[in-house]
Write a structure and sequence with these properties.
Blueprint lengths: L8 H13 L4 E4 L2 E5 L10 H7 L11 H15 L3 E6 L6 H15 L4 H21 E2 L7 E2 L2 E8 L5 E9 L17 H9 L2 H7 L8 H4 L11 H15 L3 H18 L3 E4 L2 E4 L6 H7 L3 H9 E8 L2 E8 L2 H31 L6 E7 L11 H32 L12 H8 L7 H11 L7 H13 L5 E4 L2 E6 L2 E6 L3 H6 L4 H8 L4 H5 L16 H17 L2 E8 L12 H10 L2 H10 L3 E4 H8 L14 H11 L7 E3 L3 E4 L2 H46 L25 H4 L10 E8 L5 E9 L2 E9 L9 E9 L4 E6 L6 E6 L4 E4 L3 H16 L5 E3 L2 E5 L10 E8 L6 E5 L2 E6 L51 H7 L11 H12 L16 E4 L18 E6 L5 E6 L2 E6 L3 E3 L1
Parallel strand pairs: 2-16, 3-12, 3-16, 24-27, 29-31
Antiparallel strand pairs: 1-2, 4-5, 6-7, 6-12, 8-9, 10-11, 13-14, 14-15, 17-19, 18-19, 20-21, 20-26, 21-22, 22-23, 24-25, 25-26, 28-29, 30-31, 32-33, 32-36, 33-34, 34-35
Helix pairs in contact: 1-22, 3-4, 4-5, 5-9, 5-13, 6-9, 10-11, 10-13, 14-15, 14-21, 16-17, 24-25, 26-28
Length: about 1050
């Protein structure tokens, strides 16, 4: 609302009304949040909003209580300063609900383990418990807080809530014994009556609410939209979570029911003395409280008084009249309830309070300013505390802000506002002139033995002491105070009596005689000590608590929520213009807007500003070595902030617009994001390298001491996807949309006649795919070659894998129906990944057997049953396998490989260009990597020129020995100077390609080549098998093993 064109109360009210009617209940005045009670559940308090506002700048999203809470939480973490939020507004404006949303948001955005979660549970569960015992229906609010609560959530340095503390004050004890028309007693009574089990009701003597005097005075028992029975279960669950033992829970309910039964004891006048009207009504409250019925009767109708005569003191028993007996009964009921409430607060504190405090966020929820038809001592105390809170708001937003501009030498036009300190002094001053509370305490002290006439004496003394004060007026039955929220007339009757707040020693003795330890613990006073000095009065206690609260709040960085009640009907969309305008006036929203508009949105000490934004420039990070003011200027100029957007004070920098601050914050976030990505990248690279080496080690273990190794492949890097599936939609069509690819390669599959057929072997977390190609026999695509899913194997159906003990590339996949004989250069990698996936799915080890005689079952065809085939492996010359089929037996002859105990040799130096090693997934662009520098799971259309790769590569990483004549030729070329080259042959006109990997032809119609060899590309084919010409031979080769040049 700082941007309103007119700054008047009418314009503010109109703006609030428009937003309210459109279901926007939150508005900002600078950092102050204005909240209008919608009297219905709003849809924007879900996890989606939590995610939206977490970490976002305050003005990045629409106004919301989550934005203010997130701002508090982040400021606490960044600046290391305690935060607090002061929620103010009149009764029914929505303060308690706002406090719940704050605690709920903090619980969701802060992390933590089981211990932290336990603290969060207690913090959240404390709400229903304290509301049950501390809230009630009033004329203006169906769930009105009848006590003040300051809840501190304590945090570890990591931002996890690990403790808390509740300070309570101003419990409205008088509500226990009497309520105004259309109001209720505290919620717990109605919850107990509606929600207790049949057994509990019988044990506690629970009847209908109209049976109890303490509940039937107002004639109101139900509240629209409130389920007392369900709320009772929540209250009991809350006690359980907080850790109140079961036996104590039972006694809490006993005291609650005992107070109700105590209220039904009535008195009659008998010869100027009061006596119990019905003796029978003494038994049940005495039973519930664990005391003797006759003793209860005695203490309600008489009390001891100390009498001094001639230097001697003696105790005499004074019989009370009917009115005094009723007062004594009510005093006992109020004392029991107040002490029970204090116990519950203390139980919550014991469950979550930690010995030392690091950081905290405080939430102040206190009942708002009250103006009723009849305003008594309770309203006087409530309004005094609200007056003190208004003073804090003025001190820290209006007064302090303007004074700071003057101290810092900032150009500024002063703005007038009403400072309510004069009203606070009227109430709490001790001397010259004495305030209302001081006069009240003095009257109570001098007339302690004379109950009658004390209130009249108080009014006379107030007229004498403060009668001429501009904010005070008196009338025949009371006085008027001109509060910041308006004039309030207070009825003087009962002021002195309620201010004394003294419980007779007789009643303390009575409760200390209870058979229940818990009840005795609520009355710990030592009555044998000498009574010296004035007893503590209610007003002096409230004044002390209010000033302690103010001191606590002033030590924190404050935030403000100003709650507005739009109507008295408590219905959605009702808007009472005059009521809202009155609240806008006394909350000082117009002055607040003017100060924010003319002032600066942000101010910070030079050193704190430098500390926060030093990361933006290399000159200031990690430490600025010059004067702090110059460092701040350097930062502001580095982000090109206009000179009119900031002013430099003597110790602080002042930034005018929030947008300028957001610019700084956004740049800071970007810096952190960049550095975080660098750290993440390094960490992922490290983890990937570690995982990769572990995977190769595990793969090596599968064959260790069982199979000879090929010298060409033992040190090969694992690539995973050798087919480049990301760019092969014709193959990906057989996989689900986001199915991850662990392994993909073109293999040889042997049929029942041992004829070799090309198949694409794909391994995913879902199974094994074997894809072949067939010519379409009919239709519009007749004659075209199409990919066909030949077989899909589920892991649960795989019985095992068989291999020979020699260096060949054959293996048999055994499956329930029939087996598959396959040949792959990358069998070790495939087996390693298959073993892992198999174990993940079946929770058992894959059976891998080694033998030089492999038997496998072939697929049934026609009427003939499936039969077996045998592959026999023999020693022979050379490293290439020689195949000789004969009937149902295939003989494979191959030379000796490396010993079975051979292991791969790992290079610890990471490749220069390798950024991470992962298996391919459908989210990444994949390419087959070069043999020198693998990048697992990566397939890109463009790659760097070959000579650049060669320069940056660490070829030792491969550790593959040179082979054949080409290897000898390379050695000679390095060791001796070559002769002059012959005349170059004319370059062929057709396209050429360069090998990215070594490929050894598997059939007579295939060609072989080494890494970086250049040869002619004769023809490309969509199947992935291209035709090339090298060293005079033309044949097939896999297209993804080369790059075109």
């Amino acid at each position: 609302m700082v941007l309103l064109s007119k700054i008047t109360e009418d314009a503010i009210v109109e703006n609030l009304k428009k937003r309210y009617m459109d279901d926007y209940i939150f508005t900002y005045i600078g950092p102050v949040l204005i909240s209008v009670n919608p009297f219905k559940q709003m849809p924007y308090f879900t996890d989606r909003e939590v995610e939206l506002y977490q970490g976002a700048a305050q003005y990045e999203n629409p106004p919301h209580i989550y934005a203010l809470t997130d701002n508090m939480y982040r400021n606490m973490m960044i600046d290391g300063e305690n935060q607090c939020v002061i929620i103010s507004g009149e009764s029914g404006a929505g303060k308690t609900v706002a406090a719940k949303y704050i605690m709920g948001y903090i619980s969701k955005v802060s992390g933590g383990g089981p211990k932290v979660q336990h603290v969060k549970d207690i913090i959240l569960q404390s709400n229903p418990l304290l509301e049950a015992f501390g809230n009630a229906k009033t004329v203006r609010n169906n769930n009105s807080s009848r006590f003040g609560k300051y809840f501190e959530i304590q945090f570890s340095r990591g931002g996890e809530p690990d403790g808390g503390k509740i300070s309570n004050f101003l419990l409205e004890k008088s509500r226990v014994v009497s309520q105004n028309e259309s109001e209720r007693n505290f919620h717990i009574y109605y919850q107990l009556i509606e929600g207790a089990s049949a057994q509990q009701k019988e044990g506690l003597g629970i009847m209908t609410p109209d049976y109890y005097y303490y509940l039937n005075q107002s004639g109101t028992y139900k509240v629209d939209g409130t389920n007392d029975s369900k709320d009772f279960q929540e209250t009991m669950e809350a006690m359980q979570v907080i850790g109140i033992p079961g036996d104590i829970q039972a006694q809490v309910l006993q005291i609650t029911a005992g107070i109700l039964h105590l209220g039904n004891i009535s008195f009659i006048e008998a010869g100027n003395y009061g006596q119990v009207e019905s003796i029978d009504l003494l038994a049940f409250p005495a039973y519930l409280l664990g005391i003797d019925p006759s003793r209860l009767q005695d203490k309600l109708t008489s009390r001891k008084m100390d009498s001094k005569w001639g230097g001697k003191s003696e105790s005499i028993n004074v019989t009370l009249n009917q009115e005094q007996a009723t007062y004594t009964r009510d005093a006992l009921a109020k004392a029991l309830y107040a002490r029970l409430f204090d116990y519950l607060v203390e139980a919550i504190n014991k469950a979550i309070q930690k010995p030392h405090e690091e950081f905290s966020i405080g939430v102040l929820d206190i009942y708002g300013f009250e103006i009723f038809q009849r305003n008594g001592f309770e309203q006087f105390c409530i309004n005094f505390v609200n007056e003190k809170l208004q003073q804090i708001f003025i001190e820290l937003t209006l007064k302090a802000e303007q004074e700071e501009y003057v101290q810092e030498g900032i150009k500024w036009t002063p703005i007038e506002y009403f400072n309510n300190k004069i009203v606070c002094d009227l109430i709490e001053n001790k001397l010259s002139p004495p305030g209302i509370m001081s006069v009240l305490d003095d009257v109570c002290a001098t007339m302690h033995a004379k109950g009658e006439g004390a209130d009249g004496t108080l009014l006379q003394k107030l007229q004498a002491a403060v009668g001429t004060h501009e904010h005070f007026n008196s009338w025949n039955s009371g006085f008027v105070i001109h509060h910041y929220a308006g004039k309030v007339s207070y009825d003087i009757n009962g002021f002195c009596e309620r201010n004394r707040d003294v419980l007779f020693p007789d009643l303390i003795e009575l409760m200390q005689s209870s058979e229940f330890d818990f009840i005795r613990s609520l009355f710990p006073e030592n009555l044998n000590t000498d009574k010296k000095g004035r007893p503590t009065t209610a007003s002096s206690k409230i004044k002390r608590q209010a000033n302690e609260l103010v001191n606590t709040l002033m030590k924190c960085t404050p935030h403000y929520i100003r709650c507005i009640k739009p109507n008295e009907t408590k219905r959605p969309k009702d808007w009472e213009e005059s009521r809202v305008k009155h609240q806008v006036e006394y909350l000082g929203l117009r002055e607040n807007i003017r100060v924010r508009r003319a002032g600066f949105a942000y101010r910070r000490l030079f050193n704190k500003f430098l500390m926060r934004y030093a990361i933006l420039t290399p000159e200031t990070w990690p430490c600025w070595r010059g004067p702090e003011q110059q460092g701040v200027l350097h930062l502001l100029r580095s982000v090109n902030m206009d000179n009119d957007q900031y002013q430099m004070g003597r110790t602080k920098v002042f930034v005018k617009n929030p947008e300028s601050l957001f610019l700084l914050e956004e740049m800071r976030e970007r810096k952190f994001d960049t550095f975080a990505r660098i750290i993440q990248k390094a960490w992922r690279r490290y983890n990937a390298r570690k995982k990769y080496e572990q995977m190769r080690e595990e793969a090596s273990d599968i064959l260790y001491n069982s199979k000879e190794r090929r010298k060409n492949s033992i040190n090969r890097n694992f690539v995973g996807d050798y087919l480049g599936l990301e760019q092969r939609p014709e193959l990906r069509q057989f996989l689900s949309k986001r199915e991850r690819v662990d392994f993909a390669d073109s293999v040889n599959k042997f049929d029942r006649r041992f004829k070799s057929i090309k198949r694409d072997l794909i391994l995913t977390p879902k199974g094994i795919y074997l894809i072949g190609r067939e010519k379409v026999k009919k239709g519009p695509e007749k004659g075209q070659i199409k990919e066909v899913l030949k077989r899909k194997l589920d892991f649960v159906n795989i019985a095992g894998v068989s291999l020979s003990a020699r260096q060949d590339d054959f293996f048999v996949l055994h499956e329930a129906q029939y087996d598959s004989l396959l040949e792959s250069n990358f069998k070790t990698e495939f087996l390693s990944l298959l073993s892992k996936r198999y174990e993940e799915v079946t929770k058992s080890k894959l059976t891998i057997s080694f033998s030089d005689r492999l038997e496998f079952r072939v697929k049934k065809e026609g009427w003939g049953g499936g039969s077996s085939r045998v592959v026999v492996f023999q020693r022979g010359p050379g490293d290439l396998a020689q195949l000789k089929p004969a009937g149902k037996t295939l003989t494979v002859t191959i030379g000796d490989g490396l010993p079975k105990s051979s292991r791969a040799k790992f290079s610890r130096a990471p490749p220069t260009r390798q950024s991470e090693i992962t298996y391919s997934s459908p989210h990444k662009q994949n390419r087959p990597p070069s043999a020198a520098l693998p990048k697992l799971g990566s397939q890109k259309a463009h790659r760097a020129p070959a000579h650049n790769q060669h320069n940056h590569s660490n070829l030792d990483f491969l550790n593959v020995p040179d082979q054949g004549m080409s290897g000898k030729q390379r050695k000679r070329s390095i060791s001796s100077r070559p002769p002059p080259a012959p005349k170059p042959q004319p370059r062929p006109q057709g396209p050429r390609c360069r090998a990215l990997y070594q490929y050894v032809g598997q059939d007579t119609d295939e060609i072989s080549f080494d890494v970086d060899e250049v040869f002619d590309l004769v023809r490309e084919d969509g199947s992935g098998w291209w035709t090339g010409r090298i060293r005079g031979k033309e044949g097939l080769f896999p297209g993804n093993y080369v790059e075109k040049i």
